[in-house]
Amino acid sequence: MLDLLFHNVTIPHSSERMDVGISDGIITYLAKTEDEVAPAKEVIEADGRVLLPGLVEPHIHLDKAYLLDQMEQDATNLTEAIQFTSDLKKSFTKEDIRRRSVKVLEKCVGYGVTHLRCHVEVDPIVGLKGMEVLLELRETFRDQVEIQLVVFPQEGIFKQPGTTDLMEKAMLLGADVVGGIPYNDNDAVEHIDFVFALAAKCNKPIDFHVDFSDDPTQLAIRDIVKRTLAYGYQGKVSVGHLTSLASVPYDEAKLIAADIAKAGISVMALPATDLFLNGRSDQERVRRGVTPVKLLLEKGANVSFGTNNIQNPFTPFGTGDPLDIALLLAHVAQLGTRQDAELLLDMATVQAAKAIGLKDHGIALYNKADFILFDTTNPRQILLERPPRQTIWKRGVKQRTIVTERR
Ligand SMILES: [Zn+2]
After folding, report:
1. Where residue 148 falls among pLDDT bands split at 50, 70, 90?
2. C-alpha torsion 366→369→375→377, nearest 10
3. In angstroms, what is the span from residue 58 Cα to ligand 1's centroid?
4. What SUPFAM superfamilies does its record include (predicted)?
5. CA distance 157 to 200
6. What percent of the chain has pLDDT over 70?
7. Domains of the chain
8. Is 321 helix (H, G, I), strand (E, B) or coil?
9. Nearest Cα residue to 325 out of 342, 302, 309, 301
10. How many CB atoms lie within 10 A of CB 291?
């Protein structure tokens, strides 16, 4: 007997109504809806409403969220955003980091985020404070949202003596992913080499902030492709931003996009931050400054999107709801068809899951029972009308009935 059966749901990529059954937190039954209902302790009559896998937030910063009140002035470009945050970071305490991180996590859980990858700053300014707090919160929240922690050298690695040791220590403490940011260091190649060597030593995946500009010559992605192949790291490398690629001449960009796809590198668009900080020097024909999503998809790359920052110098907006970013990306990447709406929901779930290395996410047999039931029978409406997320389940356990009306 099943623990729980969803009877008569609409699920992604199925034209038929389906029944989805779970036992011990795992999907163990998946069949077309028939008159006869599989025996279950609890049956949810869904009347065709949409059941989605849990949302996956593949790229977010918790430790520097909600800094607007602490800022003396607003940032108008990337250099200022990095500098202002670096200055504020000097006064971060563990309590302060915990309070702001918990505020984001609680919101994310309420929106139906069941997995989240968080970049945690590790450098001589903040030391391991943020990592220690987030390691604790990873445990505290584990029954609500599974958190992956990226060791993130925001201030550069070699530009800030002492960072290499701190990064190694953070990995030993239990971080999940090695991060990097080649555009903020003395030498991008040296930076990339260190990240790959550390990841290979720890046998962990890699997640870079890369090529965050409108400069078509800033293409560290080429070196990342080369190292990915040399280390046999296909499928274990993700990159966020990659906005320079949008300024590269199209024929060249096509070749780079194809190389990214061949190397199995996942790309995360971060449109809220990218739109806010890029294109600032363009007085006419202002560029959007977002990675070329359609081109990357056309060449076969795995593309998803992330919130990145919430209400700080890098992005003075943000709620933590991945569906906000889905709608923003729909506008900016001109993804407006019914198929595009389904693609955006895939990007927020299974494609983001692939980007962060999850093997058992999505509505398929023997995957984890992480779901959201929406009050609509039409997946496109999830993007357009933001119907309430009626109920959320994490590994088969009902989380809470929330009403996330449109704001
Ligand atoms: Zn980021």
Report:
1. very high
2. 0
3. 10
4. Composite domain of metallo-dependent hydrolases, Metallo-dependent hydrolases
5. 17
6. 98
7. 2-53+361-398 (2.30.40.10), 55-355 (3.20.20.140)
8. coil
9. 309
10. 30
User: What's the 114 CA to ligand 1 centre distance in angstroms?
Assistant: 19
In whole angstroms, how far apart are CA 52 and each of 8, 112, 263, 384? 13, 10, 29, 16
Distance (angstroms) between ligand 1 centre and the Cα of 202 equals 22
Cα 240 to middle of ligand 1, angstroms: 7
Whether pLDDT at 275 is above 80: yes
Q: How far is the CA of 320 from the centre of ligand 1 (A)?
A: 13
The alpha carbon of 392 and the centre of ligand 1 are apart by a number of angstroms equal to 27
The confidence band for 376, taking pLDDT boundaries of 50, 70 and 90, is: very high
For 190, phi then psi, to 5°, come to -60, -40
Query: What tokens does 56 get?
Result: 């996956």
| Residue 11: both structure tokens together | 């699920």
Percent of the chain with pLDDT over 90: 90
Query: How many Cβ atoms sit within 10 Å of the Cβ of residue 42?
Result: 11
**CA 252 – CA 246 distance, rounded (Å):** 11
Quick one: pLDDT band at residue 103, thresholds 50, 70, 90?
very high
Contact between 242 and 265 under an 8 Å Cβ cutoff? The reply is: no
What average pLDDT is seen over the chain?
95
Instruction: Output the six-digit token pair for 253.
Output: 């960009």
Tens-place pLDDT, residues 192-239 = 999 999 999 999 999 999 999 999 999 999 999 999 999 999 999 999
pLDDT value, residue 406: 46
Mean pLDDT of all residues in 135-139? 98
Edge-to-edge, what's the strand order for the sheet holding 26-32?
A: 26-32, 18-23, 2-9, 40-45
- Tracing tokens 């670096």 back to the chain, one arrives at 86
Radius of gyration, alpha carbons of the chain: 21
- pLDDT computed for residue 36 by the predictor: 86
Nearest to 191 by CA among 172, 211, 175: 211
